[in-house]
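In response to a reviewer's request, we include the raw inputs and outputs for one of the modeled complexes. The two entities were modeled together in a single run.
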Amino acid sequence: MQHPFPVPDAITVKNLRKTYTVREGGSWRGKTREIVALDGISFSVPKGQIAGFIGPNGAGKSTAIKILSGILRPTSGEVQVNGLVPWTSRVAHVARIGVVFGQRTQLWWDLSVGEGLALLRDIYGVEPERFARNRARLADALDLGEIMDQSVRQLSLGQRMRAEIAASLIHDPDILILDEPTIGLDAPSKLAVRAFVHELCRDHGTTVLLTTHDMHDIEALAERVIVIGHGRILADSPFEDLRMTTLSERILELDFHGTPPELALPAGAVETARAPHSLTITFDPRQIPAPALVAHVGHLPGLDDLRISRPSIDEIITRFYADHAA
Amino acid sequence: MPETMPSPTRTLSALGLYRRMAGASIVAQLRYPGTFAIQAIGNFVTTLLGFFGIWSLFRRFGSIAGWDIGTVAVLYGLVNVAFAVAETLGRGFEVFGGEYVRTGSFDRLLLRPRSTLLLLLGHELRLRPIGRFLQGAFVLIAGLWLAPHVQWSAVLVLPLAIAGGAAMFLGVLIGQAALCFITVEGLEVVNVLTYGGVEAGQYPLTMFGRWLRRFITFVLPLAAVCYYPALFSLNHPDPLGMPTWVGSLSPLAGFAFLGVMVLIWHRAVAGYVSSGS
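The model returned the following structure tokens for the whole complex.
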């Protein structure tokens, strides 16, 4: 979608590089070795966009997230988030972002959710009226009513994640960084989190940077994916484009009430599996469009049912990593 | 799409926020009042037993090497009260290695728009050392009652000594936390300065050899916050020849020590932010 006005960037990253020095063998006197975590990455995220930031383990994702959050200083390169350099003005920077680390809590184990939110109000200096409004809105959207008075220690993982998201938004950040927000959640909780993030972006124009290993989060939320591997950006495009360039094939499944017949298939389609009562055909829609293929097989004797599907996002991303040796 | 409003803020002062965090930690500690009571009483009894050891020595010998029970009780009370105050305030630094560095939650702390020192002070206002505090205060008052030449100015100097001593021990805890960035393991060494400091502070300086005397005067200013102000308050000449008035100012060294440790802390955090480990 083309915006009528150029939308200013919420996040700008240029030639970002980070190397770590590690000691071999972990001893005090051992030789040191340099590990390149980020090898000069550049991207920008316009205000109000949900950008997926993905890559295999060890690709440099968490290093990049830490730098953008202001808790790690890069070796070289430029970063601006809301117009601020995160690591030179940590306090001003972190006051305007919200961060959810799926595996770490930002609430207090021994306090109730409500007490924790009130403490965050004072840490961030949120005005009382604004706090009351945000608390009511978040409690409603994230269904926190019955857990508000429970101590964080007693919450289930799904309840805790909803409380964590509320905690990260109580100060109205312009940018929300979500690191594995659905890890370990059951299906209803995952859907609730996704729906909430979607509304947040739509209704408040919050910019969201989402890292996850759950590709369904990406499919449901991200307008764009940035794929990182070996410290470099491997792809930066809408997910549909990634699908087309990586694994555009479709799958046609046919069910028969008898033994499937032998077939002569048109160019671009191949039989990939055969079972006593079914056949699987993989085809490239650019060579043979789906309607033409269906017309070709539609009058086969004994055909009961047929289904067309696309490779799952997990298969696509696995193929993408394999193609890039990531 | 509604315009994102610039967030109006009502920034709470550091002290105001500290009060809020401390209050929340007290609520959390009192959630299990039975546990708290047992711990506080245990703290009182174990520290009191320590003093009985000293007391029985003096009961047997009257005075030891020119030191009377009153003076030693004042030293004992001062160092324990000061340490109890530091333990109450500095819990966040004491557990820093295990609860923040090893678990990675120090990153979480850096994501809050406040000073890391303030946030760690607010980790917990620990109530348990109240046992040591009361016991130390009790022995201190008893010492003042027993000592032969108490100065009226002790009323001013002893609170200063307690504050200086608390600052010094808090400095040790902050230094210990800063060290956690380098090594989470092997911090038992630092307990030599905390618990060892409390032990050493209970005895007059003349009891120690020259090397240790220098250490607790110039490196860890234990003598400055404890021994000299006690001598000043009790008008007791220093057998090692230091003029008595020194004790009225020397507790300030505890604040200087804290200042140095705060600088070291800031350097250590900057180092962590650039190395990420």
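As requested, we also summarize the result in words. Chain A touches chain B through 46 residues (CB under 8 Å). The mean pLDDT of chain A is 89.
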